[in-house]
């Protein structure tokens, strides 16, 4: 995460922890009958791991999913009583760390399973873990034809995992046939592991069908205000606001070009604002504009204006000609993400997804602040 500005000058990144809590509670209400976890990997999707974990715990979350051991150790230090899973699994030779920090690896291969069972035998203790089976993602996970081997190995020592997991590849597209295929494969798999809790649904799976909920759901993107389901209105509260300052105002003439590569030629006399944000802050270079394509947008005083030319490392130029009735000024804050332009609005313009926009927040050279959390005390 980029350090906050020691001067307080420059940009402002505001995280509404109250909105984060409302989002978790809303999803928990939808998933009635299943436990609702919280995926906090990648610095809690760019919002700040420690602050997000505290807020989510105060809202009622007790099960947290980190990607790496380092993330999981931070969650454990922040929340001593939480249940913490490591989605990347058991790193070779790291069982002692996991045991000492009370972390639950998501076991996804036979070598990993064998090492974990050896740790259980050496301590004469059924150390908790989840098992991840691949039902069609071809990423992490046991292959389905390994289920009988997994079952034999755990039955030999009387071990039971805390949970059987899989992950949906196309949940953001509810009508995709792969969702039905994966659900059927996962349901069949569970027959080999009776009476063990199961988890399949991410944010989109949670929001598109109770048949995917099982005993635990694992929302991620929806917690942080991002769109989980393609083609549907996003019902989640906005969590993140990013504002950056105008560095300079300038006049430019018809026929002049803007930015590196002279990729955009002005077609009218224009008033331009140079804004202090660039790809080094996570404002993707794919938000660049040219005469052939529209790029990203920003909002000034609640009014949307377009990016002109290429996004640079530290700066972007926007066309404010149409704001002549309320001319912007140097030092004025420009909304990059917020109420006017959400995470997914910028992601759509960049040809990417809200996940990437959010996780890039850790790059933003901006003073970070938190507000709105309930139940944190102090």
Q: According to CATH, what is the topology of the largest domain?
A: TIM Barrel
Record field, number of beta strands? 19
Classified in CATH, the superfamily of the largest domain is Alanine racemase
Q: How many structurally independent domains?
A: 2
- For the residues shown, what is the average pLDDT? 96
- Could you tell me how far the N terminus lies from the C terminus, measured between alpha carbons in angstroms? 25 Å
The secondary-structure class comes to: alpha/beta
CATH architecture of the largest domain, by name, is Alpha-Beta Barrel
Work out the radius of gyration. Answer: 24 Å
In the predicted model, the low-confidence regions spanning at least 5 consecutive residues are: none
Number of contiguous helices: 11
Tell me the name of the CATH class of the largest domain.
Alpha Beta
Helical residues, percent: 25-40%
How large a portion of the residues is in β-strands, by DSSP E?
15-25%
The helix-strand sequence is EHEEHHEHEHEHEHEHEHEEEEEEEEEHHE
Shape: elongated
Biggest sheet overview: 8 strands, mixed
Task: Write out key terms for the chains shown.
378 residues, alpha/beta, TIM Barrel, Lyase, Ornithine Decarboxylase, Chain A, domain 1, 8-stranded mixed β-sheet, 7-stranded parallel β-sheet, 21% strand, EC 5.1.1.1, alanine racemase activity, Ala_racemase/Decarboxylase_C, pyridoxal phosphate binding, Ala_racemase_N
């Amino acid at each position: 995460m980029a350090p906050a500005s020691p001067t307080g000058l420059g940009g402002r990144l505001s995280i509404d922890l109250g909105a984060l809590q409302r989002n978790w509670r809303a999803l928990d209400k939808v998933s009635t009958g299943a436990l609702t976890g919280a995926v906090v990997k990648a610095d809690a999707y760019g919002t700040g791991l420690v602050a997000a974990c505290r807020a989510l715990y105060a809202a009622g979350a007790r099960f947290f999913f980190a990607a790496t051991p380092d993330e999981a150790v931070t969650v454990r230090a922040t929340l001593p009583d939480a249940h913490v899973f490591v989605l990347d699994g058991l790193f070779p030779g790291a069982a002692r760390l996991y045991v000492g920090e009370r972390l639950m690896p998501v076991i996804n291969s036979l070598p990993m399973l064998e090492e974990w069972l050896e740790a259980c035998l050496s301590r004469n203790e059924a150390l908790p873990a989840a098992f991840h089976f691949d039902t069609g993602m071809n990423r992490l996970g046991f292959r389905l034809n390994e289920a009988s081997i997994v079952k034999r190995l755990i039955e030999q020592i009387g071990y039971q995992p805390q949970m059987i997991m899989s992950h949906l590849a196309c949940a953001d597209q509810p009508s995709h046939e792969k969702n039905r295929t994966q659900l059927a494969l996962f349901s069949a798999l569970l027959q080999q592991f009776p009476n063990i809790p199961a988890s399949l649904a991410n944010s989109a799976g949670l929001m598109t069908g109770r048949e995917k909920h099982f005993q635990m759901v694992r929302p991620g993107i929806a917690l942080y205000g991002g769109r989980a389901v393609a083609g549907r209105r996003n019902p989640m509260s906005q969590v993140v606001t990013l504002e950056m300052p105008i560095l300079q105002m300038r006049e430019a003439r018809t026929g002049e070009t803007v930015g590196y590569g002279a990729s955009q030629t002005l077609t009218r006399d224009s008033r331009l604002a140079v804004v202090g944000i660039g790809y080094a802050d996570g404002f993707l270079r794919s938000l660049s504009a040219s005469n052939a394509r529209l790029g990203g947008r920003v909002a000034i005083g609640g009014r949307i204006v377009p990016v002109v030319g290429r996004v640079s490392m530290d700066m972007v130029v926007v066309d404010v000609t149409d704001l002549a009735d309320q001319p912007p000024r140097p030092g004025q804050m420009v909304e990059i993400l917020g109420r006017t332009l959400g995470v997914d609005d910028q992601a759509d313009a960049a040809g990417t997804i809200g996940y990437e926009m959010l996780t890039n927040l850790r790059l933003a050279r901006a003073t970070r602040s938190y507000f709105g959390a309930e139940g944190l005390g102090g």
